[in-house]
Structures are given as structure tokens and as C-alpha cells.
Amino acid sequence: MADAADIAGYHEETFHAARVAAVRRAAHVRVSRTGVCRYCGEPVSLERAFCDVDCRDDHEHEQRIRAFGGSRRA
User: Fold this and answer.
1) pTM, two decimal places
2) What averages of pLDDT result for each successive group of 10 residues across the chain (74 residues)?
3) Where does the source fall among the domains of life (predicted)?
């Protein structure tokens, strides 16, 4: 019979696997291109989703934080 530590370990592993899967799914979502940077709102060409690599990286970082239950922007 499993003790409390075994059960807690199982739940922790299950929760962690679910969060990793959620982050991986979110990473594969296509970013729509609207003519404005998805992070800072500056105008960009329709071929681009972000104005530069810094905005893209910051956006991806915030998405990972949100996927794990955090919040970055107010």
C-alpha cells in the first residue's frame, strides 16, 4: 500500500507533466500577424509578429510564466 509520500510524489509528477505539456502546446500555437508587435504594440510589417527578437523573447518568456500559473503584466 502506498504511503502519503508516495501519493504526494505521484501527484507532483502528474502535475508537473501536465504543466510541461501545456507549455509545449502553447509553444506550437501560431501567432497571428496584425501589423502591430504582439508584445509592445509598435507598428510592424504584416510578415512579422514582433518588432525585434527582444520583444519576441520577452513575449515567449511571459507566456511560459503564465503557463505555470504566474502573472507578469498588470
Assistant:
1) 0.52
2) 85 87 70 87 92 93 81 55
3) Bacteria
